[in-house]
Amino acid sequence: MSNIFVVPADSLIQAIAQKLKDDFPEVTPPEGSQFWKTAFFKDLAPIDSENFWYIRCASILRKVKKNGPIGVNKLRKAYGGKNRKGPSKNHSAKGAGKIIRVALQQLENSKLLAKSERKGRVVSPEGTSFLERTAHSIMRK
Predict the structure, then answer these.
(1) How far apart are CA 92 and CA 80, in angstroms?
(2) In angstroms, rounded to a whole number, what is the distance separating the alpha carbons of residues 127 and 40?
């Protein structure tokens, strides 16, 4: 039996990103997203700007399945990092909310996620079968 918890996360995310790019026209990078930073404390936008959007959507889909129901604020904390303030102590900082919010909306439009009543988002049955089929195809290789 293969599920998303058995398959290595990096290979699963790469496979999901490729399938999102090929099979789901609802998931597309917004205009200008290649210039967006992923957090305010970052200096540059992601280097792999062509596939970044699909990789982030795949990662969000996996995190929602693993930790759901989950909202934008918890995902911002998960994609955050440390804000270095020179010689003083580092502090934790949240990631960019717009990237997460738009990715969640696109995944909802493609019927992979669904809103839970007052709790955040959960993976829909179609999304669960999509994730499990992808994990099974990786385990067969």
Answers:
(1) 7
(2) 31
Task: State the DSSP string of 13-39.
Answer: HHHHHHHHHHH-TT--PPTTGGG--SS
CA distance 88 to 127: 44
Per DSSP bridges, beta strands 113-116 and 120-123 are antiparallel
Radius of gyration of the chain (CA): 16
Q: Which domains does the chain have, with CATH numbers?
A: 9-140 (1.10.10.10)
Closest C-alpha to 62, from 8, 117, 101: 8
CB contact at 8 A, 79 and 39:
yes
d(CA 51, CA 29) in angstroms, rounded, equals 9
In order of 30, 83, 104, 110, the CA distances from 69 in angstroms are: 25, 27, 12, 18
Q: At what angle do helices 9-23 and 125-140 cross, to 10 degrees?
A: 120
- Give the 3-state secondary structure of residue 91: strand
What is the mean pLDDT of each successive set of 10 residues along the chain, which is 141 residues long?
Answer: 81 92 89 78 74 91 90 89 81 86 92 88 92 90 76
